Amino acid sequence: MPLKSLQIIATRFSFPAERVFYCGFAMSDDLHFDTLAIRSGTLRSQFSEHSEALFLTSSFVFENAAQAAQRFQATGEGYTYSRFSNPTVAMFQQRLAALEGAEACLATASGMSAILSCCLGTLAAGDHIVSSHSIFGATVQLFNTVLARFGITTSYVSGANVQEWAAAVRPNTKLFYVETPSNPLTELADIEALKAVAQQAGVLLVVDNCFCTPALQKPFEHGADVVIHSATKYIDGQGRVLGGAILGSEQFIQERIAPILRTTGPSLSPFNAWVLLKGLETLSIRMERQSENALAIARWLESQKGVARVHYPGLASHPQFDLARRQQNSGGAVLSFELDASDDAGRRARAWHLIDHCRVISITANLGDTRSTITHPATTTHVRVTPEARQAAGIGEGLLRVAVGLEDVKDLQTDLARGLATA
Ligand SMILES: Cc1ncc(COP(=O)(O)O)c(C=O)c1O
Fold first, then answer.
1. DSSP-assigned states of every residue in 303-333
2. I want to staple 86 with a disulfide (CB 3.0 to 4.6 A). Which of 56, 82, 310, 386 is the partner?
């Protein structure tokens, strides 16, 4: 569809006609993902800038006292204060919503603040969460320590076993929380099957889509009620800024999430929103190439001596390979693998040895970067999780996670081979 077909809508914000300030583009529904990633959510100022403007301002001025009163009562259109809304942040929210196929999106300062805000907006003391046990370590901490102090309890089940979810439902269960693929074991959850259980129980299904992004997986198409993002990861894509987002229906976002963000203040900075907008423009091309690189590394690792197991949804050996093919466009860019030894101390020593012999791959806990990264989950991202919970989640001492970037695959293999050969 040619871009001429975009309908230009003037958003006048009560300015006099000669001072019309922004115009946005109402995107036609039949535009494709890559066009939406670049063109949707564009608001243009009176200077007609081509690239999105960065509105680094904490507040907005009013024409007069009456307009200020209107804005504060939210009866007039326009911006008031950047904790509530900001044009650069609004552009990011609109663009991400277009890509996820969501009615609405609100951005947050980080992925964790998105998860917390979602919980604050939907749960109260006495409520219960059912979560897959293979989730990001800080999310487990949030559920087990922070929310638990406010009387919210969590049961953990296998993301892959729908029966366990159904069996864990209690009369006070309000929310199902799942990451798919999970961090770091790439365990998948069948979103459609979970939706069926959630619907029957009258429970909200929340999916953390951080690993796949909408370029590889659209949870709303499979029945998710809410999608969470750590935009820090693939949406930025170059390891520069923190950010997060909550997506859902207009009603959910306005009634449940907006009041929480407005009063608790985990707002995304306009600068970070600007960086993330640029990240979205290259998202699908990065995800495609990084997934290809990850598949090549995963296949190669499977053939290496001393590697007991490789976890990657794009491998035919992955127990949920068929589900991955149904639910995702590719296996994604994160893989993990297990090194063998006779005991835990030996497994940890081998894993650390391999890490310490990397010269190209960065030793850092972040993922989603164009630079490949390696981490030992048991002693970093999941160190605060109890040893029993780690064991239940399958995160052992020999496990390493690699988030594959855009470097040449041959150099990445050489890097990993160095530590493997000498361990
Ligand atoms: C799957 C997943 N969800 C959420 C988060 C939290 O995101 P942030 O670091 O932006 O708070 C992370 C961070 O690594 C993650 O991997």
1. TSTTEEEEE-TTSTTSTTHHHHHHH-SS--S
2. 82
